[in-house]
Amino acid sequence: MISHQNNLMFLVPSYFFIEDYQKHLYFNDIPLGTLQLSTWLKERAGTRTGIVDLRIESEKLTNIASKNPFNDDRVKKELIEILERNQIAEFDNVGINCYTSYQYAYSVFVAQVIKEEYPDKVLIVGGYHPTAVPHDFLYDGSPFDYLIRGEGELALLNLFARDKPLVKNINLYCRELYSNELVDINQIPFPDFDTYLKKYPYKNKFNFEIYASRGCPYQCAFCATNYPFRSLDFSRFKIQFEKLIPIVEELGNRALKIGFVDQAFCNVPIYPKILEYIHENRLHEQFSFSCQARVESLAQDLNMLRMLRKCEFLVGVGFESANPLILKEMHKTGNPINYIGASLKILNEYKNSDGPYVRFNVVCGFPGETKETFKETVDFIHQYAIHENVQISPSLFSNYPNVFVYKNMDYYEREFGAKFVREWWKMAENQFKLSVPEPSERYSLKDLIQDYKTEYTSILKLFRRNTFGNLLLWKDFYNKWHKELDASSDAN
């Protein structure tokens, strides 16, 4: 069976086993990657596209959060209703962007339902998880026809711009498409906001974001953004930015926020020009901006840090830990003394002047963490970072596939006694919890969660200028998690 039609329905997967706190984190971003691919195919191959966000669609349903969704016919029925309501019959090809490993179970479930109910559809899967763990899709009986590893633009163009039609898989074995060739990000068109926001025109819901680069110049051991770093030209960025502004004005929340989601904004060559452009046009008086920055990059040029503050940027700094061993194991720095000094330099800059606050990001529970290293970071925060201009943003280390830690779990088990749930994304329970390892033989996961919720609840309460996401949801999630671990420990 072949497809003669140049069309593609993009599906943005939702999540199984998700709780309210994770919904707060993962349900409000616009799927920029999918929107970019949609415009790319429209302009380059004349492809007719549609976008269905199953995160939003699933919120309308009653059974999608079933405890056993894989075996629940009600969940399957509701998914079919979503697909029918969004005219799946009008498309010959369906693409699933399995962006995170947390979406793996949902992505496979959706593909299996489509395979059973719409057997003539050609199924394409791509994204972070297929790139990191292709064998999860490349097997006899796979519901997918094509798997795209790496960046999707060129592979999809090769599929849809050619004369030959897409074909169903042979013997139910998925075809893998992979190329080392990197797309020129200056050629990527403006995301297909029009198609998406006409379908989901929800004011005050979405976080509007923009990239000035792709990839990251650093290779931290915990980070999944470990692909080649490239920057937009300023002229190209300006075109994209000026198209985004009226969209945010029309559909943004009351604060009119625009987030620069580059992994290391201050390493993007054009970032001084971006700040100059924002300041000259007084855009900071209309919009709230945010970005992420490295400690070293931000501290080495205080004039640019001050320019960020003049433009009212909320800057997130990847501090992560105050312990020298943990910093080295994270591949954050080879010189922890200088790193801590640079961090103090940034903190002092914010503490000694008025203006926007800085967000100091902390990663807890990295393999090798002990109660002592955890306390060292907490003590550093209390001594140097408790201030109205400093917000602490903690998170737990999650062991995503394709990060350095996941590829070297044997090392961390041998050296520190860390314990991992391998292939946690295939487990039928809350995978956000399963992805967090026990950090060391001297520090159980139960003790980590206890210290994490206790210490950081008190720290987060001290910051009066804003809230950490939703503190009540945060506290409730970690309190329940600790009780589960405590009960499990008692049972054993």
What does it look like?
By secondary structure, the chain is α/β, with parallel strands linked by helices. It has two domains: 2-178, Rossmann fold, CATH 3.40.50; 204-491, tm_1862 like domain (pyruvate-formate lyase- activating enzyme, Alpha-Beta Horseshoe). Helix content is 42%, strand content 15%. The protein is built from 20 helices and 16 strands. The chain has helices spanning 20-26, 32-45, 54-58, 73-85, 104-117, 128-132, 152-160, 193-199, 234-251, 271-280, 295-299, 302-310, 324-329, 336-351, 371-385, 404-407, 409-416, 431-434, 445-462, 471-491, and strands at 2-3, 7-12, 48-53, 93-97, 122-126, 146-149, 166-167, 175-178, 208-210, 213-214, 230-231, 257-260, 288-293, 313-320, 358-364, 390-396. The protein has a six-stranded parallel sheet, sandwiched between helices. Strand 15 (358-364), helix 15 and strand 16 form a beta-alpha-beta unit. Helix 2 runs parallel beside helix 7 and helix 19 runs antiparallel to helix 20. The longest helix has 21 residues, at 471-491. It is globular and about 65 Å long. The model has no long low-confidence stretch (mean pLDDT 90).
